[in-house]
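User: Could you check the structure of this?
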Amino acid sequence: MRVSVVGCGGVSKSHLTALKEMKDVTISSVVDIKKDRADAAASEYNCKAYYDFDVMLEDDKPDCVHICTPHYLHVEMSVKALSAGVNVLCEKPCAITAEGLSKIKVAQLMSEAQFGVCFQNRYNESVLLIKELIEKEQYGKILSARAFVHWERNEDYYSDDWHGTLSKEGGGVVVNQAIHTHDLLRFLVGKSIRAVTGHVYNDHLKGVIEVEDTVYALFEFDDGIRAIYNATTAFSDNLPVLIDIICEKATLRIEGNNAYVITDGETEHLHIADNTGFVGKNYWGKGHSSLISDFYDCLLNGRKFPIDALEGGKAVEEFLAIYKSSETGEKVYLNKE
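Assistant: Sure, the predicted structure tokens are below.
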């Protein structure tokens, strides 16, 4: 299977490293409008460099493309590839507007190719272990949940031409960093979010970025479960993400890629992270390789990839609801399809 990686920035390294180790997959090309970046990646991975996405699709004719470009390009590139019958694995978010999300859903429906969204933290060992305990109801039913992301992003992070801009990034910490944790809350609770109350702020870089660096949100799930969610990039360090799922008999905790059960004040370690061999930042986790491997197993064996435009698009609908709630000061109810 021939694959092209589109966008040769930081996150592309996670994709390229995983693809290089896979059998039945050949990296046929890379694409970047910055020729030096495309040439460097092509040299490292022994493939062809392109500087135009449309030219690559026509000339290289890959079986699959990985979209690792700035957010505002995800919809256009994904729709073009799907319309050409090319499978797509897209970095989050798959869209930054409701209109864009609708276009991807239609393109997926009309195409015989598969579309997947990179919510790779679902594949972290700690998450899979806690998810299994929840599904077995080993500690009873879920009562509530909470999640915290406290990271640091300073002015230099926004020195390129798209981070921190509303038109190209689509938002700040909600869209870019904490979207993974927001997605994990819904994934672990296993219920739909029916209502959102959100508040976003720029506490750290006023006048430097157009988007928020801090968010607080209340999620109301089906069955009456409530979760709180707090994320910021205004902190002075990058701490492991913390998620607590409070059940009837215990609290199930994920901290980074560690997993714990807390019962009557006693903490049991279920999984301790292996902090070696990271590609990218170690507080991301190692889920990219596992997600990419699963995506190609789906392609090769005719399975449907679980995080498609419908599932991956839920996070888009929810973060748009956070922004709307923050703007209006009102609770926002989500429509059920």
